[in-house]
Each structure stands twice: as structure tokens, then as C-alpha cells.
Amino acid sequence: MDIRRPLHQAIASALAGILFLNPIVAAAAQLAVDAAAGGNTQLGAAGNGVPIVNIATP
Length: 58
Prior knowledge:
Elements: H1 6-28, E1 42-45, E2 51-54
Antiparallel strand pairs: 1-2
Protein name: Filamentous hemagglutinin
Signal peptide: 1-28
Keywords: Signal
């Protein structure tokens, strides 16, 4: 693949941008428990702030 072509440069730039922005978007996602599902599913946090989902048994 010849990276000097404009189309290839655009594709490479788009892929680099996606690789850069993907972790940022994932970190900004808000987790929520579906109240309509019932059960005792809980959303908590570990000591270091990482979200923990306790899934209720079916």
C-alpha cells in the first residue's frame, strides 16, 4: 500500500483518530442498572473507582 496517495492518507488518519478516541468514549460511558429487569442486580465500585456490576442470578 502506497501511503502517499490521498485516499490512503485519509484512511490512515481516520483509523488513527478512531484508535485514539475509542478509549476516551468508552471511559465516558455511564453504566446503569435496568430497573425493569427485576432481581437484585447492583452497580458498585471497587476501591480504586472501577465500576463493578453484581449480576443477579436468573
